[in-house]
Structure formats: structure tokens, C-alpha cells
């Protein structure tokens, strides 16, 4: 056992999952397709101080009351390693936490990467994917770089990079419209939607069509087609949320204004599209040449508190041991 530090980056889904087919195993009811970023980073150090009585999680310097979402992946790896000694997990994010910016995905991916190295478990890719899944349905995607396809076929998982970041350089401009933590977690929200939204079955049954279109658009590097299907898929997911009982609405007035601004840019012929997850932040994907203009237009949108620029980046990796 040794101390080990890993980093991972958030990933944003262009074709989203919303709903679990197997709630106790935390298995998504559908496949998803995402891009992994580079400038936003979660860093996790795992160590085994002698005086520690139980596994302890410090997040952004604050001791957490419980291990929360990281408990199952942690227990899983410790069980495989047969090492029982309590570990100290110190995680930090260089961006707002639990605000719909995929900090749980990058946090969990960095944690299992550090823990695997510290415990010497040397898990295979497939085992890492399964361990990540115990923590969050999107975390496995942050293990991989560039364009990432997480395929779920009858509860079997397969996750891999389908196109490297360098092969199709795109930029992501994250417009943060609120840094408050969300009140309904995605895990809770998905269950509410599965049980109550009249649109949920159609969402699940028609999902593969969206996926096929997106996979074709990526293979052809067709920005317009990818943008069209990504926006449609995102809006469909938010309709499922909004038609749940109680309705789940993550958007705020600035979210709507950001979307309108993107639509305006598209009308002017700019290569941009948006996506929105379980939070009010708007993620804008654009071709690199348009990036500067997009940022200067988004900076003027009332309610945009912070803009984070990123390219596509690498999967989780050890940076220190
Ligand atoms: O598994 P979670 O809790 O990270 O949920 C992810 C939910 C969405 O971000 C809305 C969709 C997705 O596929 O990332």
C-alpha cells in the first residue's frame, strides 16, 4: 500500500442517459455518448495514515460526514485487494462542486484510479468501468479521453474512446449561471422520472435512434449533424424531467437566455450547439475558430456568473505516487 494521486476531468454527455434499469446495481437504462474535457480537473490523493480509524473523505478541504457516492467503489476495491486498513481520501475540484458540472464523474474516476494504484489491485479496464459505475452512471466515461461511448446492452457495460480528442478538436464553453448545489440529485431525479413521467418509456425506447445519428455524425466529423441531435436529445431529457411528478426543473432564467443566445449564433451561421445536464449550467460546444466570439457574446448574457473554457482532454491518470 502506498500513497497515490490521480486526476480526471468531467465529461459532458451529448447523448444522455436518464434512468436506471437496475437501481441496486446502478446500471443505466440506456447507452450514452460524451466528451471528456481538459481544463476542469478533479484531483484525488489516497493514503493510509496509521492513526486513522475509518475511511475518511475530505472534499475541497472539508471532512465529509459520510463517504456518500464514493462508498461503494471504495468498498469494492478494498474487497478485491483484501486490504482492510482505513484510507484517507482527499479530493478537490478546480471548479464548482455538485452544480451540474459532472464533478461526481471526475471525482469518482480520479478516486478509483488513485485507489487502484495505491492498493496495487491493477484492475482491468472492464473492472475499472464496473467499479466506477457503482459510484455514478457517468463516472466510467471520465476514465477515457476524447469522445466516449458508454454502451449498455442488457445490463452489460462497455465503455471506450471512439474518437481521440486530437482527431476532432472542439472547444467547450461552460456558462455557469448558478454555483448553488442542486437540490435534487441526478440519482433521485432519475428515479422520480422513471416512476412518474408519461414520457419516460418513449425516452428509453427511442434512445438508440439518437445514438446512431450521433455516432454517424462523429464518424463523419459532421458538426452540424452532431449539434442537431445533441440538442434534441438534451431537450427531450429535460422534457422527461419536467413532466415528472413532482416536476424536475433545473433551468433558471439565465439558462433560457443562454440557449436563446446560442440559437441566435446558429442563425448567424456560427458553428455552436448547447447541452445542459442536471443543473442550470449551459455547456456550449463550438469549433475552435469560433471560440473567442462565443465567449465574448456569452460574457454579456445577464446571469452568467462564470465562463470556463476547455478543449477535449485525457482520461483519468496517476500523476504522483
Ligand atoms: O450518473 P450521474 O449521477 O452522473 O448522472 C448523469 C446525468 C446526466 O448528466 C444528466 C446525463 C449524462 O448522461 O451525463
Please explain how this structure is put together.
With 321 residues, the protein is an alpha+beta fold. It folds into 2 domains: 162 residues, Ribosomal Protein S5, domain 2, CATH 3.30.230.10; 145 residues, 2-Layer Sandwich (Alpha-Beta Plaits), CATH 3.30.70.890. The chain has 9 helices and 16 strands. The protein has a 6-stranded mixed β-sheet. Strand 3 and strand 4 form a beta hairpin. Helix 2 packs across helix 3. The radius of gyration is 19 Å and the shape is globular. The mean pLDDT is 96. It binds (3R)-3-hydroxy-3-methyl-5-(phosphonooxy)pentanoic acid. (3R)-3-hydroxy-3-methyl-5-(phosphonooxy)pentanoic acid (PMV) binds next to helix 2 and helix 4.
Number of DSSP strands?
16
Order of helices and strands: EEEEEEEEHEHHEEEHHHHHEEHEE
User: Over the alpha carbons, how many angstroms does the gyration radius reach?
Assistant: 19 Å
Q: Given the C-alpha coordinates, what overall shape results? A: globular
What spatial order of strands do you see in the largest sheet?
8-7-9-6-1-16
Kindly provide the name of the CATH class of the largest domain: Alpha Beta
**Mean pLDDT, nearest integer?**
96
For the record, the count of structural domains works out to 2
Question: How does the major sheet shape up?
Answer: 6 strands, mixed
State the end-to-end distance: 11 Å
CATH architectural grouping of the largest domain: 2-Layer Sandwich
Bound ligands: (3R)-3-hydroxy-3-methyl-5-(phosphonooxy)pentanoic acid
For this structure, the CATH topology of the largest domain is Ribosomal Protein S5, domain 2
Q: Kindly state the percentage of residues in helix.
A: 25-40%
Classification by helices and strands: alpha+beta
Counting DSSP H or I runs of 4 or more residues, the number of helices is 9
Strand content: 15-25%
* Stretches with pLDDT under 50, minimum 5 residues: none
